[in-house]
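Pipeline run #58 for the internal structure catalog. This entry was flagged by the ingest filter as a single-chain record with no existing model, so it goes straight to prediction. Upstream metadata was stripped on purpose; only the residue string is passed forward. Reviewer on rotation: M.T. Logging verbosity set to normal.
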Amino acid sequence: MGVNVFMVSNTEGYTYKSGTSFAAPLAAGAGALLLQAHPDWSPIDLRQAMIESADRFDNPDNLYGYGLPDAFEASQLLYINPVEPIIIAVGDSLDITFTVTGLPDSILTFSATNLPDGAVFADNGNRTATLRYLASIGEIGTRVFQVRADFGVGSYTLDVSLSIVPQDHIAVGPNPFSDSLTIFIGPNDGRPVEISIHTINGEKVWDNFTDNYNEITATVVWNCRNNNGAEVASGVYFVVVQTERLTRKFKVFKR
């Protein structure tokens, strides 16, 4: 990095130059990409990821240091597989596994904060952790809890949204949303008949006929695409949920 860098000449055309003046902006650019992918990383996390991705990490010296960093590999060093926003009804149980991928061979520990009362979080010791929970009426509402993976001086924290709703409840979230929207229908609301998404002008962009559901509760995830498979634009939408017993409308905003 910084050796024979192809660039615009200060006279005309293009040329090759070498030096730390060219290595520094390349390294800074790689760091900026990593922070875009992992905005929760601390400066120490960023430094450690770049060092461990370098081609001389296992055998550094005073001439080349740790060698050339690999931004893509660095982005994979500390990564907990993402979890969609969770919506469960009172009395339902939650059993979810968190997995770290791309982690170097280091001692890894898991921890969790802001869990609901009664939740059991276990570090399985094999780069996975498990959360088990039976939703209780005293925890109705939405919270964001954190799952953290630590190794050495590096760490990664994943925020997970958990909504607990009454059994006779229809919930839509998160709101606002970016990549997906979850529609939850409780068991006492009747079997779902149709779920549809409409623009603020009333145009139907997506629908989902759900007469084949046989679960006690129904959960549908909309991936922000219309019936033709194209991603919809940002803005206000209305979610219409029709069951055997009732029809509900929700106003949501896509970022």
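catalog note: The mean pLDDT is 83.
catalog note: The radius of gyration is 24 Å.
status: ready for reviewer M.T.
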